[in-house]
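Predict structure. Chain length: 248.
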Amino acid sequence: MLKIISLIRSVLWLIWTAAFIIPLALLLVLSAPFSGWRWLYRIANWWGLSAVYGMKWICGVHWRITGADNLPTDGRKTIILSKHQSTWETLAYLALSPQPLCYVYKKELHWIPFFGWAIGTMRMIHIDRSQRATAFKKVVEQGQRVMKEKRWVIMFPEGTRIARGKAGAYKTGGTRLACETGAVVVPIAVSSAKCWPKGSFIKYPGIIDISVGIPIASTGHTPDSLMREVQTHIESEMPRLDASAYKG
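Prediction complete.
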């Protein structure tokens, strides 16, 4: 019965979200040639807010944040490195972050109707995997640009959504960027798969926990050693946030 009710609520949320995403995406595309990134980000922020609060009201998906005080408030260059279990955190961080974010994403996403068109206007950092020799150099150049704009760069080091209770291979792109730019990295653990499992359309009611770690300076680190610290923090937090997924 819970699954059937959750399915119905998930369909209603999809309708709700489409009602916001389509017009806001069109607004982004139409206003991009005439607008600065701050206005475009504000539109995207409305998008994120409508999605996560809609999921809260319709599907019963709530959230709880610990360690928010760890987020830098002194203007330091900052890279957020987060666990990735569902699309929820992509939307939630956009909605809830106290500082404008700049996502690093694959250029192929631009082909997705409305969603891809919209993010293509946002002046964030896209990776063209067909140009492997120069791709990271362009990421560094773009990263330096957005950090000057006081935006936080956000990346998911596992690269893709990971099933509940599992850990992916942590890639060093984010820590390489931190070492190149002198940024601090902030590890974040999130238990979103409790409510939105990987590969499932259904959103189940519950509480998603977000745990923000203490910023880690890139000075004196190699990308590998810095990523080991990030991974250790995130994966040691996950059993605390979602104990039932890590039994045995």
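Summary: Strands lie at 61-66, 78-82, 101-106, 125-127, 152-155, 184-190, 206-212, 216-217.
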